[in-house]
Design brief:
alpha+beta, Photosynthetic Reaction Center, Chain H, domain 2, seven-stranded mixed sheet, 7 helices, 14 strands
Length: 266
């Protein structure tokens, strides 16, 4: 399901033995644009402490009751490694976190979640076998590439031939736990129009200049299918969007992977 990142804020996190807290921020990977962690405000339960929850632990999201069910206990969370969210989360902190929960490293593998496109698959024997193979290869990166969505909101979009708007919101896929689209407001060029851009088209992000550079032109963005946030994002709309930009859609590779995963899991 697609949702705005702002809709995740405030969701209750429910462990097997009670509520942990509520979602505050989203940490995403600026290389793959996967949501690596939800930061959780624990309120009076763990005073003055925020904790990280990996999507690997998420069982499901109940949008009607606005809660996220996770496969962990409150005692596990209480004993988890301390992480200072006022400083960048280092790869060593992540390694300690993953080691504590017994999760495979997402950075040891070729896909968005290491051996998989989906975090939920990392707990399966099939995924574990792939992790063992991935660990025999050199890790993709020794550095952490984590940013919060709040950091990037408002960044200017820089096309190949100039500025074209700013990042207004993020469209999150709560199955892959990935940012599928940047919602771009073009109010200074075409009042009232919003468009979507895939992170796959982002060439780089300049943290110093607060800009997102995309591999397309202003005219291509101007003439792309308009995004109506009052309507759900359909596959038909996504097809038109990718066809407009002449790019292969993300779901082709993911569908092939899911078929392979299903066959190997039998």
């Amino acid at each position: 399901m697609f949702t705005h990142s702002k809709n995740l804020k405030g969701l209750s996190i429910l462990a097997s033995d009670g509520e942990i807290g509520t979602v505050d921020q989203l940490y995403f990977d600026d290389e793959t644009w996967a949501i690596r962690y939800l930061t959780v405000e624990t309120g009076n339960w763990l005073v003055d402490r925020s904790v990280l929850i990996s999507p690997i632990s998420v069982i499901n999201v109940n949008w009607e009751s606005r809660c996220v069910h996770v496969a962990m206990t409150k005692k596990q969370v209480e004993g988890s490694p301390d992480i200072d969210l006022h400083r960048p989360v280092s790869r060593q902190h992540e390694a300690d976190y993953f080691g504590y929960y017994g999760y495979p490293y997402y950075w040891d593998g070729p896909y968005m979640w290491g051996p998989s496109y989906y975090p939920a698959e990392l707990a399966t024997p099939f995924a574990s076998a792939l992790v063992e193979q991935a660990e025999r290869r050199q890790a993709q990166s020794l550095d952490s590439h984590l940013r919060t969505t709040a950091d990037v909101k408002g960044y200017q979009i820089e096309a190949a031939d100039g500025e074209i708007g700013h990042v207004d919101e993020f469209i999150v896929d709560d199955s892959a736990w990935a940012i599928r689209y940047l919602e771009v407001a073009t109010v200074n060029w075409w009042p009232g129009k919003k468009v979507l851009l895939s992170p796959a088209w982002v060439e780089r992000v300049s943290w110093e200049d607060s800009k997102v550079f995309v591999a397309t032109t202003r005219e291509a963005i101007k003439s792309c299918p308009e995004y109506d946030e009052s309507l759900p994002i359909s596959r038909e709309y996504e097809n038109r969007l990718y066809f407009h930009y002449g790019r292969p859609p993300y779901w082709i590779a993911e569908t092939k992977h899911q078929a392979t995963f299903a066959q190997s899991a039998r």
